[in-house]
Amino acid sequence: MAQPDKKLDKFKSAVLKDAQEQREKILEEINNFRNTEMEKAEEDILHETYIMIQNEITAIKNQQSRKISLAELDGRRKLLKLREEITDKVFKETAARILDFSKTAEYITLICESTKTSCNLLPEGDIIIQVKKSDLAHAEKLIAASSRTATVEENADIVLGGVIIINRDKGLVINETLDLKLMSQKDWYTGSSGLTLEL
């Protein structure tokens, strides 16, 4: 082989070696760039996925919270309705028993005693004794129990029984009706019956 051929081969070999090194360097840079971009893209995707998952979790929690709140509200409504039904039933049954009681001799004694006690609390003067319609039959006994000049009249608001004593001259009224006494027991019953609205 001639000297120029050797030099040419050497030059060719050096150029090829240099080109090979440049190629490998470029490939390494491309791989590094690709790896960096892939890692960055993976991090971005992971971050976006994390945010999406967190948003989904929050949405699910909110949805479940709304469902629970609606269920609690519905439960409270049902419990309130049931409590009202039970209370109404108890008080209707009690009112029926009071009406039965108002047909007894003990009831007549009770309204006469209520009249006497109430009249003792009022200042002197004429009085009006108000009763339910069926108690007008006991007018004489009630007047006698009052020990005063009295008139007995019907009061359509009295359903269960008892008396309302009125001293118009002094503007005083004493309500001893069984209707009022039963109604005043409703608050007590609601508070002490154990029919609370706690869930």
Task: Provide structural commentary.
The protein is α+β, with helices and mostly antiparallel strands and 199 residues long. It has 2 domains: 101 residues; 88 residues, hypothetical protein PF0899 fold (2-Layer Sandwich). It is 70% helix and 11% strand. It has a 4-stranded mixed β-sheet with strand order 2-1-3-4. Strand 1, helix 3 and strand 2 form a beta-alpha-beta unit. It is rod-shaped and about 160 Å long. The termini are far apart.
Topology readout:
Elements: H1 3-101, H2 105-121, E1 127-131, H3 139-146, E2 150-154, E3 162-167, E4 172-177, H4 178-192
Parallel strand pairs: 1-2
Antiparallel strand pairs: 1-3, 3-4
Comma- or semicolon-separated keywords:
alpha+beta, 199 residues, 70% helix, rod-shaped, four-stranded mixed β-sheet
Short description:
This protein has 199 residues and is α+β, with helices and mostly antiparallel strands.
Total domain count? 2
Large-scale geometry: rod-shaped
Q: What integer is the average pLDDT? A: 87
Which runs of at least 5 residues are low in confidence (pLDDT < 50)? none
H/E series: HHEHEEEH
Which strand order does the major sheet show?
2-1-3-4
Distance from N terminus to C terminus (CA atoms, Å) equals: 105 Å
Instruction: Work out the radius of gyration.
Output: 49 Å
What is the count of β-strands? 4
Report the sheet with the most strands, covering strand number, pairing sense and barrel closure. 4 strands, mixed
Percentage of residues in helical conformation: 55-70%
